[in-house]
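Lab manual, section 2.4: Encoding a predicted structure.

Procedure: take the sequence of the chain (106 residues), apply the prediction step described in section 2.3, and record the output as structure tokens. A sample record is shown.
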Amino acid sequence: MAERVLLALSTFPDRETAQRVSNQVVTEKLAACANILPAVESIYRWKDKVETGNETLVIFKLGEDRQSAFQEKVRSLHPYEVPEIIFFPVSNGLPEYLHWVADSCR
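Recorded output:
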């Protein structure tokens, strides 16, 4: 496979925000698709205080060549001061699916 595929994770404060951002990045071909998982509980340290909150997790699939533009777009649309945007390389998978991801971001 010529192009590497990435998974990107990001949490959002609610389902509506997750849907809006996901729709935007898929429409702009910055990601091939987005899977929205509407109920995650997050426990984290923020400004020296332990916080707990319900969030919506999104798993995005994108070509590695879209990483920078994807991150910039998600950050510009995200309501959090410091949004979670984490990338994982996909080392293997169904070749046809991986090609679909790469082709969908062109």
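Check your result against the sample. The chain has a mean pLDDT of 95.
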